[in-house]
Amino acid sequence: VQLVESGGGLVQPGGSLRLSCAASGFTFSRFLMSWYRQAPGQERDLVARFSTLGGMTNYADSVQGRFTISRDNQKNVVYLQMNSLKPEDTAVYYCNARSYDSGQNYWGQGTQVTVSA
After folding, report:
1. Rounded to an integer, what distance in angstroms lies between the CA atom of residue 34 and that of residue 73?
2. Do 80 and 71 touch, CB atoms closer than 8 A?
3. Among 40, 81, 87, 92, which residue has the fewest nearby CB atoms (within 10 Å)?
4. SS3 state at 1
């Protein structure tokens, strides 16, 4: 099983980034995909997730209206489009896959997002 995040980097406040998480080694369409983030000295928090296999989504209040999670079940990729970025969005962003059937949980290695002028 592999989850490989990409797309992080340094961006100015107000800018945009799109994170990608490429999945392999499991039946992607049967997994609920999520993005979490962890800032230095902070806990890992949920940013956005698919709450159902049918595509319902949930977002943290702090990113609602600015971030969009999406997935491509043909390519086995989940995305996080991040717009209007703020310095407080600075964190390591992690991709998570949780089996809808068994609850088994997988994590990616994380990608750094830094929002700074």
Report:
1. 14
2. no
3. 40
4. coil
What DSSP state is assigned to residue 108?
-
CA 76 to chain centre: 14
Q: Over the range 29-55, which residues count as b (16 or more CB within 10 Å of their CB) and which as e?
A: eebbbbbbbeeeeeeeeebbbbeeeee
SS3 for 7-35 is CCEEECCCCCEEEEEEEECCCHHHEEEEE
Name the token pair of 63: 């990113």
Low-confidence ranges of the chain (pLDDT < 70): none
Q: What is the DSSP string of 41-104?
A: TS--EEEEEE-STT--EEE-TTTTTTEEEEEETTTTEEEEEE-S--GGG-EEEEEEEEETTT--
Q: What is the rounded CA–CA span in Å between residue 12 and residue 22? A: 26
